[in-house]
Amino acid sequence: MTDCYENLDSYWTKTKLSTTQNIKIHCTAIIITVLKLILKPIRILFNKSFDLLANTNDYLGDFEALGSKRKEEFGENYLTESEIQQFLKSGIHGPFRVLATDEAEDLANDSDTLFHDNFHKTTAFGDDILNSLKVSGNYSINYLGFFQGSKYRKIWDVLVHPKIAQPLQSILGDDLLCWRSQFFEKNQNKKEHFGIKLALLENLIQNQN
């Protein structure tokens, strides 16, 4: 998969801006700066704030459940009408168990093995980026695990598990497409560092009081 990725040095060489493009960009930046200076006193005069995202929610409308399958009719893991209404109100459904403890441990171990094998060189990044991640200390399954759900059956089985897919169908619609998958690593060392920082902060607050 990485064969299709171009070397970063050659990519930056090809995408280098021409003199004309640089002039256009600088001119645009100058025009925007001048407009901001002109608009600022006008905004202050009328006591108005200029916010492009102001009142955005007024135009989005209410979120509606698009799925037609309900537990009342189809059973299984689909949501009941009351569960859907609760989700629409709170944005939360669950918690619920998808895997047994031993299944989760097996999947974690298999995923760790895949990570240490570099997912058989099917990562979404070329060697240059992977080497940069290693040098910066950010080389982790968070990055190598992008889009791997469609390549490995055990991961895919979790993504399409009825306890996940069917509730989503009740909300998003009957036909679903998995756009991407990603791992989120909870590093024990980071948790320990966070705990140390939190303890230091608490001591600092107590000393100040």
Give a description of the structure.
By secondary structure, this protein is mainly alpha-helical. The protein has helices at about 10-15, 20-45, 55-60, 70-75, 80-90, 100-115, 125-135, 140-145, 155-160, 160-170, 190-209. The relative contact order is 0.11.
Layout of helices and strands:
Elements: H1 8-14, H2 19-45, H3 57-60, H4 71-74, H5 81-90, H6 101-116, H7 127-136, H8 141-144, H9 153-159, H10 162-172, H11 188-208
Give the key terms.
209 residues; mainly alpha; 11 helices; 0% strand
What is the gyration radius calculated from CA atoms? 25 Å
Label the overall shape: flat
Strand content: under 5%
Tell me the structural class. Answer: mainly alpha
What low-confidence regions span 5 or more consecutive residues with pLDDT below 50?
A: 192-197
Q: How do the helices and strands follow one another from N- to C-terminus? A: HHHHHHHHHHH
Distance between the termini: 58 Å
Largest sheet: none
Residues in helices, as a percent range? 55-70%
User: What's the number of extended β-strand segments?
Assistant: 0
Output mean pLDDT: 79
Q: Tally the helices.
A: 11
